[in-house]
Amino acid sequence: MVETLKWLFTAELLGLAVAPIVYAAFPNLADRGWGFAKPVGLLLVGFGVWILSYFGILPNSPWAWWLVTLLIAAPGLVFAIRHGPELRRFVRAKWPLLVVGEALFIGFFLVWVLVKSYDPAISGTEKPMDFMLLNASAHATAAPPEDAWLSGHPVAYYYFGYWMFGGLAQASGVQTSVAFNLSIALIAGMAAAAIFSLVAALVRRDGGSMRSSLLVGAAGAGLLLVVSSLAGWWELLAHIGVGSDGFYDWLGIENLDLRGDPASWRPDEYWWWWRASRIINTFAPGGAQLDFTIQEFPFFSLLLGDLHPHLMSIPFVLTGLGAVLNIHASARLWGFGWLLRHKTSALLLVLVTGAVGFINAWDIAFLAAVLLGAVTLKVHRERMGSLAGAALRAASPLILIGVIGVIAFSPFYFGTLSSQIQWPPIGPAAVGTRPIHLFTVWGLLLLLPAALVVTMIIRSLRPHANWLWAVLSEVTPPTPRPSLSPWLLAMVAVLLPYLVWTIGHLEFNEGAATIDLFTRLLTAGPLAVAVVVLLVTVAHRAKQGAADGVQFVLLISMMAVYLIYGAELLFVHDLFGNRMNTVFKFYYQAWIILAAASAYGLFYWTALHKALHGWPLAISRTGGVLATVLLVGSLYYPVAAVASKTDDFSGPMTLDGLAYLESGASSERSAINWLKENAESGDRIVEAVDGSYTDHGRIAASTGLPTILAWPGHQRQWRGGSDLFDGRESEVERFYTTDDVQVADSILKRYGVTYVIVGQRERARYPSLFIEKFDTLGSRAFEEDSLIIYRVQEGGVDD
To answer: pTM score, two decimals?
Structure first.
């Protein structure tokens, strides 16, 4: 409890420190960006310590984090004093937004503190890797941190999220094994407040009442962080015996079979909740997997508990969307003059743009596309020229923002970042998504934005029946000057992926399973139509001068649908050689967008429902029933999955992610604690090497002390190959098994090892381990049960 309060108090202080900056940076949002204060605080302070430590000006230490916080807070305090009356008027007028936003932050934070306290173990899946990166960042004296699983080399992964949360652990004095789980809870809280701020701003901009903005903003938090895919619906039906074996065979979700056990309300199988992230699959007649993909969504990620970049990025992506909305809603003309007049907004946009790719590399292109689209629409409505001209006018200042943002983080982008992208970088997807699987993942979050579009069309049709003609008139520009038709742009957007897929398919998939063209037609076809309708509608509204929340929501919805559509045909060609990672990353970005769009769509739909009559009212009621059914179906999973993952909230409560070691590996826990207390900066260890998703490398991961090598498969992914560590695994084996002290000593010197670990894993991994040499190489610094830590003799052994 004490560590939770220290963590929460520190996060609140960071938010308060930058609150005046946020107030100045988001003048066009209803709450002036209060929901983004904590992510902005982490970004600003984290960047300050990172860049100063990189150039050797300050160390990465607790006092440095507090010093940078004070330096950032100082100008904000001056601003608050000078604008005191204005700030007081703002608080009096908008206090419900501030209170509800903060309540959502604290509420989601505490809920996930409770859940994680019954499921804290940093064990399994990607948790050891995430813990290694957190400790490597927290214990680094300067940026970049040394890779604790590849001594002598900096982290090659996008690590800024780990850097920020590791810094928060330092500043709050919370040990990293607890900070790991508190970070997950903090992400949930920050994401809830951020999407609330975004959605409430959209509602208030379109004339919604304060009550509506509060309710719809809170609904956005629920759609983002609570609502799940319809996988839980199928799990429940199979569990209680609804349907037939033939139906579940057709459904094709791996290991989901008719069980028929209505006596219990949820499946007894522990791992049943895992299947929700592995819905999309296609099997050959013989049972072979043809299309293994990953479809995590925020609730699943929070429940799984991996502190991974796609999860850490959520509140920061939402902050970026808030910054984009702030520009889109601005009354001033876009251009370099806008940047000069809104320096705080521009600088914050630079920071967010540069940072998102450092937190999760996939997000920088996505945010850049949203930014370009929104600003293009702004310029288009301001100057009423062609879309092409608007895009060119929008691009120049944005390029400057992007260049400065990348330069600010250039030590990462041009220094330590490695890529596993192969040539050619884009490949054609061999197999598409079955319609039932697409519906299972996206049923609810596509329905609500679709309801917005349909309701808008119905509303336009009622006063005048020529809405369709008004849209179709975009084909013929009203003036003789050249103009890029939205229809042409839409056609190019949807046909280009098909063209790339067609050209590359035979080369990429020679000998692979035959493409199911009918499946492609049923899934990619409707998605393509949706992209065209959304893009043309957005362009038509921009030409009419629309600058409301609807315009912004339609734009981001179109981009989300385009991400889903693109993943049907193409994949980013990484080491996996398939669309697994592409679906994973694109779907996650689309979920964030569609959660916000769905919340706004719910507002727009319900606001107009009462004014409908006749067949439009019948359509609206039918849609309401369908949305209710899908919503209820999506809520079974979070309730049942939490019960399974926490064993119905039984057992002892703790947030210490290493507490599980005390019951089965207490000597290892003691060794980890001893190293934390006694090891010095620059110390390195050696421990046994084995593959990914094992316990190997756990001492390095838990202390941040670099070892020679761990999880080589992941290293290969991070670095795009194995050139940097070829031979290391065999050298570690040789070190442990050789009886030649001089050979062993030379290996220790080569990698700068100061501590040698000899425990159960080393003995099991190397049965021919020659233990007698270790007392010659050094002295026993720690010994408990069968685990020994040797302190290597300075200068090595004598020849």
So the answer is: 0.94
